[in-house]
Amino acid sequence: MVTGTVKIVRTVVGIIGNVISLVLFLSPVPTFVKIWKKGSVEQYSPIPYLATLINCMIWTLYGLPLVHPDSTLVWTINGTGTAIELVYIILFIIYSSNKKNRLKVVVVVLIEIIFIAIVAVVILTWVHTTKGRSTIVGIIAIVFNVMMYAAPLSVMKLVITTKSVEYMPFFLSFASFANGVAWTIYAFLPLDPYIGAPNGLGSLFSVAQLILYAIYYKNTKQILAAREGKGEVGLSNVVVD
Length: 241
What we know:
Structural class: mainly alpha
Subcellular location: Cell membrane; Endomembrane system
Number of domains: 1
Largest sheet: none
Membrane topology: Multi-pass membrane protein
Family: Belongs to the SWEET sugar transporter family.
Oligomer: single chain
Protein name: Bidirectional sugar transporter SWEET
Function: Mediates both low-affinity uptake and efflux of sugar across the membrane.
C-alpha cells in the first residue's frame, strides 16, 4: 500500500517536474525574440544553453529503459529539452556577429554530441546491467546537471560588475529554481541520489540568482529609463565581454 502510494505521488511530482522543466526550457523565448528583433545577441552568453544541451542529452540517456528502467518522465522531458536547446543555439549562431564566437559554439556542440555518443556506445556495449549503467551515467549526469545550474554564474558576474540584471532574464532564474525544487522532491520518492544531489545544489544556485535580481532590479530600471529618455549608451556598448 505504501509502495503504491509512493509510486503515485512520485508520478504526480514527476509530471509537475516535467511541466516546470518545459517552462524552464521555454523561458528564454522572450530573450530570443528580443535577439531576433534586434538582429544581434548583444551581451547574451551561449554558455547556459550549451550547458543545458549536454545536460538534457545525458539525462535522456540516463532515463532510457536500457539504462535506468521506469524513468519515462526523465527521458521524455529531457529529449524535448534537447530539441529546444538546439533551436536556441542555432538562433544564437545566426545572430552572432562575431565569426570566432560562432565557430566556438559550433565546435562545442559537436564535442558534446560526440561525447554523449561515446558514453552511450561504451555503457551499452561493455556494461551489462542496468544498475551499472545507471551508476556510470548518473555520475556523469550529476556533473553536467551542476554545470547547467552553475552556467549563469558568468552572467551573475556581469550583473555584479554592471549593477544591472538586463542580461540575466528573471524567468530563466525563477524557472531554474522551481525546476530544481520539483526534481529534488521527485528524487526522494524513492531515493535517487543522481537526480537529488545536482537538483538540490541547483536550487541553491538559482536562489543566489534571484537574490541578485532583487538587489539590482530597481537599479536596472533606472539605467534603462535613463538610456531611453536621455539617449545614453547602453550596456551592450560599454560592457567588455
